[in-house]
Write a structure and sequence with these properties.
This protein is of the alpha+beta class. It starts with a helix and ends with a strand.
Length: 176
């Protein structure tokens, strides 16, 4: 996305002209640049931090000869994203996998569902289906590479999954 495309999206979202938005965006970027050049750090709560860091002296192969050249240390601008931004990007772009659940300990239950942080512990959002043998099966889509903490909601009572270890709070812990 270019600056002009970004300005167009922002202009449409807030209902002002592209010219005004381009001007505000240019002023914002100029101000960030000026402040970094003055040695300041810019903190944008919930988003990230713009700051400068000094790189170290290093040696590299001379592209115009056979020797080694010394590259002096340089001061570089860096952006450090905060967890809110990292989490938002991961949530929207991260690879999702299907996780299957099998509850064998509720053969006489009327309703069984899987609850956890992935559904805000809402007992109605992931109901499981009863199989002919009385066991319950269900599946949900979650982000790959996370540790999942969950419990079964069996007829109004939380129970751990005995097939996986549980933490000290009584939640089943499963690496996805």
């Amino acid at each position: 996305m270019t600056k002009d495309e970004l300005a167009a999206v922002v202009a449409e979202k807030i209902g002002v002209s592209r010219t005004v938005t381009r001007s505000v965006l240019a002023t914002l970027l100029d101000t960030i640049t000026e402040q970094l050049c003055n040695g300041e750090t810019i903190y944008l709560r919930g988003f990230g931090c713009f700051e400068t860091k000094e790189g170290s002296r290093r040696r590299a192969r001379d592209p115009q000869g056979d020797g080694i050249i010394e590259i002096p240390p340089r001061i570089r601008p860096v952006f450090r994203p905060y967890n809110d931004l990292k989490d938002a990007v991961q949530e929207n772009l991260g690879k999702r996998v299907t996780v299957e659940f099998l509850c064998l300990s509720a053969k006489h239950a009327v309703t069984v569902s899987v609850v956890g942080k992935f559904n805000n512990w809402n007992e109605g959002s992931n109901p499981m289906q009863r199989l002919p043998d009385g066991s319950w099966v269900g599946e949900i889509q979650v982000l790959s590479g996370q540790t999942m903490k969950y419990q079964y909601w069996i007829d109004g009572k939380l129970e751990i999954d005995p097939a996986f270890p549980s933490d000290n709070k009584g939640n089943t812990v499963r690496q996805i």
